[in-house]
Amino acid sequence: MKRIINIAILLLTVMAARAASFTVEAPRHVVEGNKFNVTFVLQGGEGSSFTPPEVSGAKLIYGPSVSHSYSSTWINGKSSSSSSEEYTMIYKATSSDKCHIGAASIVVGGKRMSTRAFTIDVVPSGSSQSQPSHQPRTPGAPTPYSDPMTQTADKEVSGKDLFVRIELSKPHVYEQQAVVCTIKLYTKYQVSQFMPTIQPSFDGFLIEEIPMQPVLNKVETVNGQQYMVAVLKKCILYPQQSGQLTITSGNYDVTVVQFDTYRSIFGTISNPVEKDLKVTSNKATVNILPLPEPKPASFTGAVGRFNVTTDLKPATGLKTYSAATYRYIISGTGNIKYIKAPEVKFPDQFDVYDPKTDAQVNDGAGDMSGKVVMDYTFIPQYAGEFEIPQGEFSYFDPDAGKYVTVTIPARHLTVAKGEGQPSNHYRLKNMDIRPIKDGDLGLKKFHSYIVDSWTYWLWFLLPLLALTALLLYYRKQLKERADVRRMRSKHASKVAQRRLKAARGFASRGDRGGFYAEMLSAMWGYMSDKLSIPVSELSKDNINAELEKYGIDEKLRKESMDLIDKCEFAQYAPELASDDMNAVLDEAAGVIDRLERVKRKLIVNS
């Protein structure tokens, strides 16, 4: 058996190595002093531990930059896909003869693969054989980057230099089948600012956005041109209807960096210049196929591949009137987060509650995977032997193009007698037919008309009396509000309490100046409103005389005047005031409260 396993592993390794290819792409000749690209391409495999080549006659400027690409096709119901990895090195030719590029290597499927070594002819600068650095290269090799020094401010930035593209992972899918939407920025220029003004809309889709930070850290080749790429947005879309759905284009404000280059006695100097651009992305359309008919009765909208298990907590020892949980666990890959809870048929003797759902999913490269736990809480109301019958869960497999039904085995339950009695929820749920009432039903042989009853006419009289009372109360309120002095005296305490509350805020912040200013406003305002003294005539002597007129005892008058003196002193000499602000607040509230009680006593006795 061990020998068979080793042979199988060896065969798989050989097959993986044969399926993958590792090649190099580079120009045949370059000009001395110019930059050129060497790209190592891995097709049909996933590589690791990339080892750059040994190079002579050239200087490494940048690299390796790694880019990944993936493509898929769907023809006559059959799908095929391919992937590639590119490792790009940027060199500058330093020799005027030959540039030798050694072999690069990479590990694929546990086996190290290598490229061939090769030589590039280097043409001397100024020679009659000199050619520009963008000369033809070997097929498939990316065009070198534009040198930032050539990106002058007078050069127009075209749609081929910078654009935003919406890419979909699949051209057509079924309803509820995942399609990955990626919005990318392609640029040959440095980007200093990027701002979306109108985001693309995803009408007809449920969206699961994959968190990411846009960074220009990848290199891709489009139509033979090489670009720096940033993924602006990536999300998983789940179409909710069939037909053709379109993702609208978005608008973006982009600021790129160009250069003003001029010569001086110190050499060539380049100053960065920013240029503002408005960019509009493309639209993307996907064809949505309807789910086949007829749909199984147990289908609740699950699309993907799933497994289903059930569990019971507690597994044994069920008792009446004690809660238990029947757990439904759905795991797999697909629209797992949006699966509706399937219907479970519990015995009629159980009090059953709505299921609670807990989704534990991860956003993968092309779909969501994980599990959804659905807990059905139930309370047995009677002891005995019961059974949760066999059930079914159906989902649609888009790869196979058919529905798959999973059988959920029945579960036998033994319920022992517990303490308690059937719940009201259970009694009301099972009370479809009410008991027939017997005994004296209060039936009468004769009856009278309702208009002959005095209570019938009383219902007309009550609204009239209520309206009259409301009018009298309204007239009283108008009369009271017309007496301005009385209204100010009536609401003096409320106004003072609001000012004391504001003073408490100053005290909590340690602002003595604001605190004592608010305290003086509260005391002076209260005395003016309560004693009906105009502000122009407000003074300590007038306040003291008016308090004495109302029969306020000398002790309370003195406390009132002392409090005003204390606040005035603290306001104008805060550095000398040492009183606790909270104690002053309590003292003011106590003085106002006692003045209010004396006032009310005088009104009652009048």
Number of domains: 4
Number of strands: 32
Alpha carbon gyration radius: 43 Å
Label the structural class: alpha+beta
**Residue runs with pLDDT of under 50 for 5 or more positions:** 127-146, 600-606
Q: Supply the number of helical segments.
A: 9
Provide structural commentary.
The protein has 606 residues and is α+β, with helices and mostly antiparallel strands. It has 4 domains: 1-144, Immunoglobulin-like, CATH 2.60.40; 146-290, Sandwich (Immunoglobulin-like); 295-429, Immunoglobulin-like (Sandwich); 484-605. Helices cover 25% and strands 40% of the residues. The strands form 8 sheets. Strands 23, 25, 26, 27, 28, 30 and 31 form a 7-stranded mixed beta sheet that branches. Strands 12, 14, 16, 17 and 18 form a 5-stranded antiparallel beta sheet that branches. Strands 1-3-7-6 form a 4-stranded antiparallel beta sheet. α5 runs antiparallel to α9, α6 runs antiparallel to α8 and α6 packs parallel to α9. The N and C termini lie far apart (114 Å).
